[in-house]
Amino acid sequence: MSYSVGQVSAFAGVTVRTLHHYDKAGLLSPSGRSQTGYRLYSDADLVRLQQILFYRELGFTLDEIAAILKDPQANALEHLHARQRQLRAEIDRLQQLAEVAERAIEVQRTGVSLTPQERFEVFGEITFDLSYATQAELKWAHSEGQREAMARAAAHTKEDWRQLMGESSAWRAELLAAFDEGEPSDGERAMDLAEEHRLHVSRWFTSCPPGMHRRIADDFVADPRAFALVVPPSQQRPGLAAYLCKAVHANAARRAGVRTDSEGDR
Fold first, then answer.
1. Does some domain include residue 260?
2. So what's the pLDDT on residue 266?
3. Which residue segment(s) compose the domain that 83 sits in?
4. What pLDDT is recorded for position 74?
């Protein structure tokens, strides 16, 4: 039995244009033509169309489908296993995104309760990247320190933030001066600045023992968004994040009574 392109389009749920495209690509050419030159599809053609639509639903490209149909015994299972792995990875990614969205909602609800104008007035160039804040919330989701920091941040008044940022600005100026003047990262001046930052975190957000402070400093090197919360991009220098990270680690070792070898200036 033969079917016209319109009939196939109707019961297969694809457009006539799609069928023409499959024909032009050599993926599904009708077995026959009517006396007036119209395409006619056989039962075997419909079986092939069903296979094409099945693979399309799984996300295969037309080139991949053509390769599978060309030699189904040799390629189909291999391609299906590969696609299964991809789909599972995509499921994991979507689940992660769903969790990120949930965390983003929490961050928005418990974040700094200032108007945009007040944010600019208080924070200036320091900006809060929602994607980074959300990832941090995910990373430390089971951390009591993270929950305390979020709660205390949400409770800060505008004046609290003004004082906090004033302290940060003064500390940042000292850090830049030490770096620009070539102070060693494990020298007294750099370590004292690292200790001042640790106490600042403890004072305004959550208890920050040296081990936690090291992890925070590691993020400064690993993620520019984290370091931008400490030093805005316009004030950053090449190597400054690593310098601060080394100073934090040196200070943690000093507090533990461990003497470190000099790491050089930067």
1. no
2. 35
3. 72-105
4. 61
Q: Could you tell me the pTM of the whole model?
A: 0.50
What pLDDT digit, counting tens, does each position of 202-215 carry?
998 889 999 999 99
Return the pLDDT at 218. Answer: 95
What pLDDT is attached to residue 69?
Answer: 84
Three-class DSSP category at 173? helix
Place of tokens 């007040």: 118
Please check whether residues 138 and 163 belong to one and the same domain: yes
Answer for the pair 186, 246: CB distance below 8 angstroms, yes or no.
yes
Angle, CA 63 vertex, CA 75 and CA 71 arms, to 5°? 30
What CATH code is carried by the domain that includes residue 196? 1.10.490.50
Let me know if residue 57 belongs to a domain: yes
**Which residue type sits at 124?**
G
Task: List for the chain the helix, strand, coil content (%; round to 5).
Answer: 70, 5, 25
Distance CA 183, CA 190 (A): 7
The total number of structural domains that make up the chain: 3
Residues of the chain with pLDDT under 70: 72-75, 97-143, 145-147, 150, 258-266
> Scanning the structure block, which residue is given the tokens 């959550």?
206
CATH number assigned to the domain comprising residue 19: 1.10.1660.10
Bridge partner residues of 33 (DSSP): 39
88 vs 110: CA distance, rounded Å: 33
Residue 3 sits at φ, ψ, to 5 deg, of: -130, 140
One domain for residues 20 and 86: no
Distance CA 241, CA 231 (A): 9
